[in-house]
Write a structure and sequence with these properties.
The protein is α/β, with parallel strands linked by helices. Helix content is 29%, strand content 24%. It has six helices and seven strands, in the order βαβαβααββββαα. A seven-stranded mixed β-sheet has the order 2-1-3-4-5-6-7. α1 links the parallel β1 and β2.
Length: 211
């Protein structure tokens, strides 16, 4: 099975490659950097993933294109950053230098510092949508529960991984090797579910209720 992923994020591409079976070929969508992105202004991960999958599938006629929307949901922050995870610091006009990931992490730490929560619970949530020629084929999601640390740990991940702590593993996502991470990660779980669904699925409708 040949799948095209609508992302240029090297961390996400690494995760997808690690999660793919020997019968699946993963490639980034050709020319993705030159394609103007669609708006991602829907209130849920599922709606944003659907929009992106449908949109980008028109740029690879006849091929299966996968798009994801994912993020961090912190219970003490009423589910924020949520769908705005990648733009959290930008939304809050958070100052400072560093990479976008670093600023997002610092912004999250600042928001939590104003609350009296010792071990903030949170989850990573990922929704993947697969489409061909503008038609949604299947949608799958995955989550992983954890806590947010006050100090980042580890260098193996991206995004909020240095702050996302797995109590059972006694490690952050950024401290896990890629194979172990995919076993626990929201993206690995969503991708495994999507591959299973695609292996036995026929195309469904393009309506937002397609699952």
């Amino acid at each position: 099975m040949q799948l095209y992923i609508a992302t240029t994020n090297p961390g996400k591409l690494r995760d997808f490659h690690a999660a793919a079976s020997q019968h699946v070929t993963i490639e980034p969508l050709p020319g993705l950097k030159e394609i103007p992105p669609p708006p991602e202004d829907e209130p849920t991960f599922a709606d944003n993933a659907r929009i992106k999958a449908i949109y980008y599938s028109h740029h690879a006629p006849g091929e299966i294109v996968i798009a994801d929307d994912s993020g961090l949901e912190v219970d003490a922050l009423n589910g924020a950053p949520g769908v705005r995870s990648a733009r959290y610091a930008e939304d809050h006009n958070f100052p400072g230098a560093g990479t976008l990931d670093e600023r997002n992490n610092l912004c999250l730490q600042q928001a939590l510092s104003k609350l009296s929560v010792e071990h903030p619970t949170a989850r990573y949530h990922c929704v993947l949508a697969a489409a061909r020629n503008g038609t949604i084929l299947r949608i799958a999601d995955g989550t992983v529960e954890g806590e947010i640390l006050h100090t980042p740990r580890g260098t193996q991940g991206f995004g909020y991984d240095p702050l996302f702590y797995l109590p059972d593993q006694q490690k952050t996502m950024a401290e896990l090797d890629i194979e172990t991470k995919l076993h626990f990660s929201h993206r690995g779980r969503a991708f495994a579910a999507l591959l299973n669904a695609l292996s036995r699925a026929e195309p469904t409708s393009t309506s937002p209720s397609a699952t």
